[in-house]
Amino acid sequence: MNLLESIKRFYASSVGKKLLVALSGVVLLLFLLGHLAGNLLIYMGREAINDYGEFLHHMLHGTGVWFARLGLLAAVTIHVVATIHLVQQNRAARENRYAYETTVRASKASRTMIISGIIILSFVIFHLLQFTILPGPGDQGYYDDQTSDHLRPDVFGMVVRAFQNILVCLFYIVSMGFLCFHLSHGVASVFQTLGLRSEKTAAPIEWFGRAYAAFIFLGNISIPIAVQLGFVHL
Amino acid sequence: MATEKLNLTLKVWRQPSSTAQGEIVTYEAKDIPSTASFLEMLDIVNEELINKGDEPIAFDHDCREGICGMCSLTINGRPHGPGDGVTTCQLHMRSFRNGDTIWIEPFRAQAFPILKDLIVDRSAFDHIIQAGGYISARTGSAVDANAMPIPKPVADYAFDAAACIGCGACVAACKNASAMLFVAAKVEHLGVLPQGKAEKDRRVLGMVRAMDDAGFGNCTNQYECEAVCPKEISATYITKMNRDFAAASIKEAVVNEF
Prior knowledge:
Largest interface: A-B, 49 and 53 residues
CATH superfamily of the largest domain in chain B: Alpha-helical ferredoxin
Mean pLDDT of chain A: 91
Order of helices and strands of chain A: HHHHHHHHH
CATH class of the largest domain in chain B: Mainly Alpha
Strand order of the largest sheet of chain B: 2-1-5-3-4
CATH architecture of the largest domain in chain B: Orthogonal Bundle
Largest sheet of chain B: 5 strands, mixed
Oligomer: heterodimer
Largest sheet of chain A: none
Number of helices of chain B: 9
Distance between the termini of chain A: 62 Å
Shape of chain B: elongated
CATH class of chain A: Mainly Alpha
Strand content of chain B: 5-15%
């Protein structure tokens, strides 16, 4: 059996697809943490977050951001495609449902991963359009930064202006709620699928997963709230 | 103390054959002693049905002492009914109250086709075992117990998995009808022992593939299986199998023979 055939066989198996979902999930989880750390620079002021934005676009002579983007695109694609295949198989595995359905232990989050996942995916598309694809030179929120000696994108102004709209804030907060919900099952699930859970660590892993989800949620929603309350302003 | 008598309403899945359309049929179960087991309750109901000239409710059973893995039934949505660590045959009517309505359905999964009423065909499990759930070496007569030292924790770990009776409750409880708990128990109880270690990689790859071929769903780490397992087998065996499968897949991909 050659290597390519082995890879195909691996993907064809249930455990193989699950491992890919878990590994791509880890990439996305680490990205979320890095993204949050970057976001929180907004509390350090305009210069700090604009410096960070400039750094992201100039690291490795401007190729770094593209490596990151392609990596993330690959992770999202694997995560979504493998999940769709798994869900299709799961539906087919029980075509006739129970007349009396009950759940003993499975959390609400674990039973609605596909729904929260689809919502998060649509949020990501909106978020990229709003802050990455649509803003350009000449647009509002893409001004010369007063504190710097050269022309560069004003990330700070763009974010603050966006969150001055209460509807945008609410949309972000609700979306982060779904992300938190998704992670409350997803983080602990990664440990199980990658074979890193045991009787002793099962409970701490469960708590770690919830804490991670809560941290990402609270950290991110603090920004629109801070803008609305006027703690962060232009 | 006089035995309490229960009057119950049963909602039972009736299906004359594997190809026929099934439906929920309502029966009144009268004067059921609370000391009866769940299967004895069904025996009483069937006795009445036979006396009336009706077809009795078909259900699987054998030892009736919780060890053979033959009895099944999803009772009020839960395989083997309420209570932890019991099979349907060891479930007693004292777990129910007078006037209760009880829903009785077969173990539902595409991989477990219904043969009649509450009886399902669980031979998919046999096919999984045939794909590697054994040791191929000739074992000869039993060796001296102390000739092959096995640490007590290892023996316990293997035995806890070997307690699986192959009833299929894990599949019936799983939201995705996945057989991962069964397969993990069967893979891991051999994999940690010296006799089984030699064929560890071949076993996990073969059995997981046989499981996939049988049309079971995929595990989504919800642990419904662990919660209903009459032998209380831990889902951490699934964790270990995931790890072993990943390692064996890599070995298979980069090394030709193992």
